[in-house]
Each structure stands twice: as structure tokens, then as C-alpha cells.
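Dock pyridoxal-5'-phosphate; give full complex structure.
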Amino acid sequence: MKDATRAVRGGRSPGPDPRFVNPPVYHASTVLFEDLESLKGTAKLRYGDGVSYAVHGTPGTYAFEEALAELEGGHRTRICSAGAQALSGPLLACLAAGDHVLIPDAVYGNTRDFAAGMLARFGVSVEFYDPLIGGGIRALIRPETKVVYTESPGSQTFDVQDIPAIAEEAHKAGALVFMDNTWASPLYFKPFEHGVDVSIQAVTKYIAGHGDLVMGAVTATEAAYPQIQKGWYHLGLSGSPDDTYLALRGLRTIHVRLPRHWESGIALGDWLRARDEVEEVLHPAMPHDPGHAIWKRDFRGAGGLFAFWMAEGLSSAAQISAFCNRLELFGMGFSWGSYQSMLMPVNPRRTASPWPRPGQPKGQLVRVYAGLEDVDDLKADLDAAFAAARAA
Ligand SMILES: *Cc1c(COP(=O)(O)O)cnc(C)c1O
């Protein structure tokens, strides 16, 4: 089966009435058992193998998890109530005091702060590495390295990581490879074909797709899954029934929405790159980008999130304010992945690799998210904002 069919058909084990296409929403805490013998069987059930108590999942949870696991190409998926939990949960599940974890320098801000904060406080040795290190990660791996975390392309700076090369070295040392796969979604990067053991999704973004919920999901290989599931049980991670319903509804059309985000992102990237106000565009799916070769080798498509460098002469605080405040169609705010376009200035934090890299522009970096509006309207909005910046 192809992805479009998987997105439509996945997680469709029949509910109580198979005539209805969508699973019912169970608002539940308690689940009653038919007899004492089946209640006594719950030690097995709490590991996510059936309905026992609503924290561990309702039929709606399992339908969504099943559909997502199929799309990601992993053994099983578990959900939680934010993307932020989908990165902290598996790290807590797989690390202990004395272990060493490698985190890419271009990682999502919350992952950086969680690792440097709580993980370090619990006695885990946290080391950040240059996201472009590839097989050179070998030199950083120690006997106590348990997890090599990846995120590709990296948040804000869109560095494409050589996941197969990193995975090869990590596996030689017996370490697990985690990947935050939110940018590409399960459609455009197949983590388990490239050596990833644990794939992280901020469901909030493309899977939910409509800006109306926060949720996270973690998919694992058969070998890594028991440790993840145990962590889910210990931490009590779960997702709300209504949000899970909406997330599954979003997933059903992801293959229709994503190509448009990809196409509009490229159209805006090309248009921006031709402007005098723009120094350079950071977008791995554009041929000029340093990450393009690996993107082309490993990815099946691109999301609508990228960045551009405003020219240095247009990057004063007043000019950037004038630019952002003139925009009408591009919203400003955190998050992305819904139907609406967004834009905001970003200031990447790096501790293990230079940024900007030598030879890169020095103006303001601006992150753009191409939504589902008409792309000519989006260009006109940007055009007016550039005029406002020039006049400031
Ligand atoms: C948004 C995001 C997250 C966190 O998701 P939330 O649901 O907002 O907590 C994690 N990773 C990446 C790459 C993200 O963009």
C-alpha cells in the first residue's frame, strides 16, 4: 500500500458498530471488566496491549496510534499531550544517571533546555554536537553513550543531518538513535528506513494540521518499544480523547495538504531569493542549499517551513519591526503546521558549532511557514512588508 491509502485506511479496526467510518470518542477514566479473571489480566494490559484504564488508551487512542505507526513505518506508536512530552518522555525512558547523550546543536529549543536542564540535573552527561558532523560522530561516542539524538532539518537553521551515517556509528556502539521527524512528517521522511530507533512527532504541527490542538507521538522499532512503553507507563503520558479524534481526522488528509505546503514553500523561497532585500534562503529542497544533496537522497518531499536572511542593511530592529508589523496574511507566533502562513525573526542558539557559519550572511534570520493560502496573495503581503522595511 502507498502512503495515501495508509493515511485513509490505517487504524480502522472496526469499532462497536462497523457501519461508522470514524472511531467513537470515549470520554473515560474507568474501564469496567466483565469478570474478576479479566481484571486480573491487567498487568499485561497496562503495557498498551488493550483497553484497561483510560490513561493507557481508549479505542480512539489505539486507532490513531495504529494509523501513525503504519505511516512512520515503525513497530508501534504512543501518544502524549504535547510534542514537548514526545521528546522528554523517551529521553527519560532510555537514560539514567551516568549515561551520556549527544544532542545536535540545531535542536528544537525545548529539547536543548530539557537536556541541559532536567537531564543534566538527573546526572546524565549531555553533549551538544555540530549537526553536520555525519559519520564524524564516531569521535564523540563513549562507552556510556546511550542515545544519539537527531533532528533533521534542524529547527530554525535547517541543517540536514546524515542520519544513516550517524545511525551506523551509534549502532556500532550500542546506542539508540532518536529523531525529531516533525519537519518532514511521516510522509516525507521514513525514519526506520534510515536507521532511526525512536521517531518523535509534534502531532501539533502537520498531523493535526489545523492549529487546534497540541499533541505528541513517539514511534519505535520492535526492539526499542518495550523501554518506551515502560516510560509511558511510569510517566503517565496520554492524550485527550477529543484531541486524539481531531489528530486522526487531520492524519486522514495529510497527503493532500503536505504537497501544497511543499509547493508553496518552494515558490516563496524562489521569489524571496530573487529579491534585493534577501541575502539568502535556507531551504534544503532548493538546489542551492548546502543540505540539498542529502535531502534529495533521503527525503521524499519537503514541508513548508524554511528561513531567509534579511539583507544586513535591512536588519535594524526598526526595519525588522516595520517588516513584521506590516504583514497581514502571515501570522506571528510560536508553532506552525496549520493551514495558515506564519513568519517570525529567529535567533538560533549554538554552543558546539559556529553560527552563522563562516561566509554566511549576518543580517536577521527570518523563519517562514508557507500555509495553504494562495501563493500570489502571500507574495503580495511580503512585497508590502519589504516596502515598509525599506521606508523605516
Ligand atoms: C513544535 C515542535 C515541537 C514541540 O511540539 P509542541 O506540541 O509544540 O510541544 C518539537 N519539535 C519540533 C521540531 C517542533 O517544531
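Observed: The pocket of pyridoxal-5'-phosphate is lined by residues 82-84, 87, 108, 155, 180, 182, 202, 204-205, 214, 216, 335 (CB under 6 Å).
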